[in-house]
Amino acid sequence: MIRIGIDVGGTNTDAVVMNGTEVIAGVKSATTADVMSGVVNALRDVLAASGMEASAVDFVMIGTTHFTNAVVQRRDLAQTAAVRLGLPATASLPPMVDWPEDLKQSIGNHAYLAHGGNEFDGRVISPLDEDELKGIARDIAAKGIRSIAITSVFSPVSSDFERRAGAIFEAEIPGVHITMSSDIGRIGLLERENAAIMNACLRDLSAHVIEAFRNAIREAGITGKFFLTQNDGTLMDASFAEKFPVLTFASGPTNSMRGAAFLSGVSDAIVVDIGGTTSDVGSLHKGFPRQATIAVEVGGVRTNFRMPDVFSIGLGGGSHVVETDNGIKVGPVSVGYRIKTEALIFGGQTLTTTDVAVAAGRASLGDAAKVSHLSPDLIDRVQAKIHAMLEDCVEKSRLSPDPLPVIVVGGGSILVDGPLSGLEVIKPAHFGVANAVGAAIAQVSGEIDRVYALAELGRDKALEDAKQRAIDAAIAAGAAPDSIEIVDVEDVPLAYLPGNATRIRVKAVGELHAG
Amino acid sequence: MNILRTIYAEDLDDIAIGGAILGTGGGGDPYVGKLMAKEAIRKHGPVELIDVSELADDALVVPVCMMGAPTVMTEKLPQGDELLTAFRKLEQLLGRKIDAVLCGEAGGVNSTTPFVVAAAAGLPLVDGDGMGRAYPELQMVTFTLHGISATPMVLCDDKGNALVLETVSNAWTERLARAATVEMGGSALLAFYPMSGKQAKACVVRGTLSLCANLGLELRESRLSNGDPVRAIAAKLGASVLFHGRLTDIDRRTIGGFARGTARFDGVEDWKGQTFRLDFQNEFLMAERNGEIVCTTPDLITLLEAESGNPVTADSLRYGLRLVALAFPCNPQWKTDAGIALVGPRYFGYDTDYIPFDAH
Question: CATH top-level class for B228-343?
Answer without folding.
Answer: mainly beta
